Each structure stands twice: as C-alpha cells, then as structure tokens.
Amino acid sequence: MDLDVYVTAHRAEWDRLDQLLRRGRKLTGAEADELVALYQRTATHLSLIQSSAPDPMLTARLTQLVARARAAVTGTRRASWRDAVGFLTAGFPAAVYRSRHWWVPTAVLSTLLAALIGWWIGTHPEVQSAIGAPAELREMTRPGGEYETYYSSHPAASFAAQVWTNNAQAAAMCLVLGAFLCVPVLWILFLNMLNLGVGIGLMSSAGRLDVFLGLVLPHGLLELTAVFVAAGTGLRLGWTVIDPGPMTRRAALAQQGRAAVGMAIGLALVLFVSGLIEGFVTPSGLPTWARITIGIAAELAFLAYVYVLGARAARAGATGDVEEADRSAELPVAA
After folding, report:
1. Contact (Cβ atoms closer than 8 angstroms) between residue 157 and residue 81
2. What is the pLDDT of residues 258-270, one digit of tens each?
C-alpha cells in the first residue's frame, strides 16, 4: 500500500466525519446516516492501515476518530441499580457456573493436597521439628495456644475487615495473574494449601484436629470456595493465552478478562460474608456444632446460588461479560 496515496484518497472522508462529530446532536437525519456510513468506512481504513502500512501518528488519529464516532453512533450509557441487580442475579452466578469445569477440579485437587501435606506433617516428627522447636509447636497447638487465640486476638469488626482485605487481594491476584500462563495462580494455591496442611498436621499430631477443624470450617468452607473459584478462573484465563479457541487471542483474552473483572467484584462480596463469619462466628462462644452448621449453611447457600440461579442465567445466555453495547468494537480485518 502507498500510504500517501491512500491518505490523499480518503482524507476528505475523515475530515467530513470529524466535522459531523463536532456538531454533536445537531444533525439532520441524512447527516446521521452519513455519519454512520463514514464511521464504518473509517474503521475499515484504520484496520487496513494497521495491517499493511502502520503509521503511529495516522493510526492514533484514526483510532481516536473511530472511538468518537462509535460513541456518537451507539451512545453512552450510565450504570444503574438495574445493572447491579442484573450482575448479582445473572451475570456473576452465570460466570461462576460456566467456569465450574475449572474451579471444581481445582477445589478437589487442592483439598487433597492440603490433606496430604497434613498427613505427612502429622505422621513424621522429623518434619515437625523442621517447622519449629518443640516448645514453639506446643505453644501453637496447646489449649488456648496460638491456633485458638488467633481468631480472637483482635476486635471482631477490625479482624473481619483485615481478613476480608487479605482474602480479596489473594483472589484478585489469582484472577489477574492467571494471564501469565497459570504459574502464579498455582503458586498462590500451593501456599494456601501448605498453610492449611501445616495447621492440620500440627494439630492432628497434638491430638486436637477436631478443635482445629471446629475453628476453620465455619468460615473456611466459603472462603476456600471463593479462592478456588478465583484460581479456576485465573487458570482458565491463562489457558486462553495458550489456546484461544476459534477466536483471535486478543478477542478471547478480552472476553475472559472482562468476565474475570466482574468475577473479582462478585467474589469480594462472597469473601466479605466469609470475613464476617470469621470475625464474629468463629471466635464466638457458640457450640462447635452450631458454628460449623452456620459455615455449612453459608456454603450450601452459595452453591445453590451458583447451580440454581447461575445455571438458569447461563441457559438464558448470560456469560458474565459486559453488555455487547459496552464492549470495544472488533474492527474488520478486510475491506
């Protein structure tokens, strides 16, 4: 392509599109139709220039022009409470449901890993001695020791806020870092399961595994499920880099990335609930069976939310992606 000749041939169209855009809403019907036609042609011109004769200044100008034209043609839309309700009742649960083939195996394998680590530590004294001195381990596992007082060491409200912040950051890291070929997500998962496995192993070796599970299960069921969902979504995002399927890699990543951002918001709300349980229920004076029952109820409520409401929304076409009108337009690849 001779870029100078191409620019000379189409500059008048670009200038006319810019002129119409500057007039804003003061367009006649014929001028509005002309604006749409010029927008479509300019988008094609931009695609051809990017693929055949990329020029940074010209590409920047046409990109801005196409973006302005698209905003004028499609209009702008402000988020409303209806969008928030739609996200919570359809978009988020549908996204979690659609990614179940990633996060359910992640949950099963991670739980097995934590149990294996716990068994290994609990049955091998030499491993325990590598973790800490006998006196330190006794202080951690004794009645009233560090494992028990951890959940009541701070005021409930501040502790719940701290837990929520930490878990939300971990979930967000799984979602964001998944694009780096899954490796960071696997590392974050391993650290979480290692921490859980150490607790299981040390408390079981002290004959107090029931106490440990009574402290972890009330909030841990929902908390770990949220982490597994985030990790599974991050792994799915990383696999998209490797195998984007029938879509272009850029389009596939954009689609999965938008869904992941929505997932991060939804999981922050889920982790907020688990944080409240960890801050107010876990250290409470309720019987162990009552605390565990609350944790199981919260977990079953979330699973019903995903597998009932989410499945219904997924069958209706919800994906967790933003509305089509709010997505970036895919430019044509041929004239």
Report:
1. no
2. 777 788 889 989 9
